[in-house]
Design a protein that fits this description.
mainly beta, 3 helices, 213 residues, 12 strands
Length: 213
């Protein structure tokens, strides 16, 4: 396999008006870490001492609860929540949800099998390429794009099942706002992936090299 399209994004010590800062930092994990990471930009800026934008993070070591946890800097995906009157609902087997993903053409998800609980709905949406869905603490279903950044979009356009699930039909748009994500190196997944309850990371201290501009 050949790697192609390699470009130089930044270089330490290069001339130019734009500076890339390299800062060795450490932080204690959040006690209430959730799916998709946390917005800690203000704390990161305070640590660097400048109103910088984080662009990457290189793990140095993890001290404490789990050495297989590593931080990442990611942008923000688009997300939309259901607003069903209550779960369980009347069975939505064979009903549909129509949607547009990342500016593409309208697609149809036909629900197959029992669909009375939020978990049933989340599982069907999770199986769709490009989407991530899970039950949140309120009992509703959150749908996110796997793509993150301002070019990520999800629009639930309708479908017969949406008369019950009541997803907003407004287009949801991601952003280039960065988040601090923690992954499990063994699985490659966000440690909060799909969890409706917070993960306690307060027993782990992360030492990292923060890249910012």
């Amino acid at each position: 396999m050949t790697i192609t399209s390699i470009i130089k994004k930044a270089e330490m010590g290069a001339a130019g008006s734009e500076a890339t800062f390299v800062t060795l930092i450490s932080f204690v994990g959040a006690a209430d870490y959730g799916d998709g990471g946390v917005d800690e930009n203000l704390l990161l800026q305070a640590a660097v001492g400048k109103p910088v934008t984080p662009i990457g993070i290189v793990p140095a070591r993890t001290v404490g609860a789990n050495p297989l946890y590593e931080p990442r800097i990611v942008m923000t995906p688009a997300a939309v929540d259901s607003a069903a009157a209550s779960f369980p609902t009347a069975d939505q087997d064979t009903k549909t949800i129509t949607y547009k993903l990342n500016g593409g053409a309208e697609q149809t998800l036909t629900l197959s099998g029992a669909h009375t609980t939020a978990a049933h709905l989340a599982a069907s949406i999770e199986a769709v390429a490009g989407l991530h869905a899970y039950v949140i603490a309120s009992g509703q279903v959150r749908v996110k794009t796997l793509k993150n950044s301002a070019s990520a979009t999800i629009e639930i356009t309708g479908g017969t099942a949406n008369a019950v699930y009541l997803f907003s039909t407004d287009e949801a748009v991601g952003s280039d706002t960065t988040k601090l994500l923690v992954i499990n190196v063994a699985t490659g997944l966000d440690i909060g992936y799909g969890s409706s309850s917070a993960v306690d990371l307060s027993g782990s201290t992360f030492e990292c090299i923060l890249l910012s501009e």
